[in-house]
Write a structure and sequence with these properties.
The complex is a heterodimer of chains A (about 70) and B (about 425). Chain A is built from 2 helices and no strands. With about 70 residues, chain A is mainly alpha-helical. In chain A, helix 1 runs antiparallel to helix 2. In chain A, about 10% of the residues are buried. In chain B, helix 5 packs parallel to helix 10 and helix 6 packs parallel to helix 8. In chain B, about 50% of the residues lie in helices and about 20% in strands. Chain B has a 5-stranded mixed β-barrel. Classes of the chains: A mainly alpha (about 70), B alpha/beta (about 425).
């Protein structure tokens, strides 16, 4: 899975896998494969969320700092 | 009629006796002097007295007169006592006390002047003057120059006077003393006698032709009525009336003002007084300007102070209002910022929760976890998971996958439940 994959696409893919996993018909072998895939996707998404949170935190802090420096 | 005849001398002597008895006392005779100028430097002055027709001005009678050398001191003394108001000269009306004499040697009647009545001549001069003034008043000549506006700062002045005379110096000295930047253009003129009138009129015309003058001054020093009578002149008065420039006169006369003075825009008694008038006018203007500039300064200061106060108020208002506005805007921005932060965090949190849920679900679905709980996967010879007893019939051996390894076994029986 390419790292540039969009969060949205990853989430869509993940939703598709989960729907497949929840299906009773799924073969054990496929299930193991899908679980592995889902875990990877969840890792990627979590990393994206963490990264996004860090960026937002940074931007908000910088903005607060700028506002203070421009003199109230 | 007698046959007797007389010799010329007998006749003349007889005429003299008759005249003498007819005029036992000297008589007062009035008339206009003629031919006095040509004989006045001789020892005995012979001249004529004549009478003119009041309308045609033609001579209708004349008589020969003589002032003998012996009578002159008396006559001169009388004139002197009359303050030299006039001198004997042609064209003036006089009243002489005369002895009527007939000189047989010439066969002519001769009036021997013994005395003079100056009051008569003064009255005549005064009358002539009054008549002239009345005429000039009536036809507006005296008013015309007065209607001209005199410059508020009359610094360029044409001066008609006798150059280098006492009057000239008095005037110039006073002007110089003022310290103002006067420019004086002098026209040298004859200021007494018969020719004064023409000379002054010439000066007036000349100065009127000059550019840039503010006024013309006619001035001379004091003198007797006789000396100043040339300024009781109709032609001068008319020339002043025609002048485009205001004429200021200072004909030094203590008793009467001359016709020139009356026709002028303004008159003063002496050259110094005329100069003082001009200086005073300039000074008045300077004072006025100074006062006005002080007013202007004061008004400007008041205005500026007012504006400054206004500006100060405006600055104070600006300081107050926009700061409060900015403060509000800043608070609002801060609010936006905080809201944004919250929203984003909330959103991220949601995503994270969703991921965690997915993770739990996936973990639950992971077969390895199922195996750990005691379940196992049984596969046939083809490696496919056995989900039904039907699947077991196709194979002889089974591979059972447990959490920690595999068990191989043979199919010994199948029971369907």
């Amino acid at each position: 899975m390419p790292s540039e994959e969009k969060y949205r696409e990853a989430v869509e893919k993940l939703d598709g896998i989960i729907a497949r996993i929840e299906n009773e018909d799924i073969d054990v072998d496929e299930l193991a494969l899908r679980v592995k895939e889902a875990v990877n996707l969840i890792k990627v998404c979590k990393a994206k969320i963490d990264k996004a949170e860090l960026q937002v935190k940074q931007v908000v802090e910088d903005f607060a700092k700028e506002s203070k420096e421009s003199g109230q | 009629m007698s046959e007797e005849s007389l010799s010329v001398s007998e006749l003349n002597n007889f005429i003299r006796d008759v005249l003498a008895s007819g005029f036992p006392q000297p008589v007062w005779v009035c008339g206009e002097i003629q031919g006095y100028e040509r004989g006045k430097d001789k020892k005995h002055v012979f001249f004529e007295l004549c009478e003119k027709d009041p309308v045609s001005q033609e001579i209708i009678a004349r008589a020969g007169l003589v002032i003998f050398a012996g009578a002159r001191p008396k006559i001169e003394n009388i004139l002197k006592r009359a303050e030299n108001a006039f001198a004997l000269k042609d064209d003036i009306e006089v009243r002489f006390l005369c002895k009527v004499d007939f000189y047989p040697g010439h066969g002519q009647v001769r009036l021997i002047v013994e005395s003079i009545d100056p009051v008569y001549t003064l009255g005549k001069i005064s009358q002539d003057r009054q008549r002239l003034i009345a005429l000039l008043q009536k036809n507006g000549t005296l008013e015309r120059n007065k209607r001209l506006a005199l410059a508020r700062v009359p610094l360029s002045v044409g001066l008609i006077t006798s150059y280098d005379s006492a009057a000239y110096h008095d005037f110039i000295d006073e002007i110089k003393r003022s310290g103002f930047g006067f420019r004086i253009f002098v026209v040298n003129a004859i200021m007494q006698g018969k020719n004064a009138s023409d000379s002054v009129i010439k000066g007036l015309k000349m100065l009127n032709g000059m550019e840039g003058l503010d006024a013309i001054v006619i001035t001379r020093g004091g003198g007797s009525i006789a000396e100043l009578s040339c300024f009781d002149s109709q032609p001068i008065a008319e020339a002043i009336a025609q002048s485009r420039l205001p004429v200021l006169s200072g004909i030094g006369h203590e008793i009467n003002t001359t016709v020139t003075d009356l026709a002028a825009h303004t008159f003063a008694k002496t050259p110094t007084a005329v100069a003082q008038f001009l200086v005073g006018r300039v000074d008045e203007f300077v004072t006025h300007v100074n006062e006005k500039s002080e007013d202007l300064l004061r008004l400007t200061k008041t205005y500026i102070d007012g504006r400054r106060a206004h500006l100060k108020d405006a600055v104070a208002a600006l300081k107050g209002i926009p700061l409060s506005v900015l403060k509000g805007a800043r608070q609002k921005m801060g609010q936006y910022r905080d809201d944004l932060k919250k929203t984003i965090y909330l959103r991220l949190q949601n995503s994270r929760t969703k991921m965690n849920n997915h993770q739990k679900l996936v973990e639950m679905a992971d077969p390895r976890n199922t195996l750990k709980r005691g379940f196992s996967i049984t596969r046939g010879e083809d490696g496919k998971a056995i989900r039904s007893v039907k699947d077991a019939r196709r194979t002889k051996t089974l591979v059972t996958t447990l959490a920690d390894g595999r068990v191989n076994s043979d199919v010994r029986g199948i029971v369907k439940e």
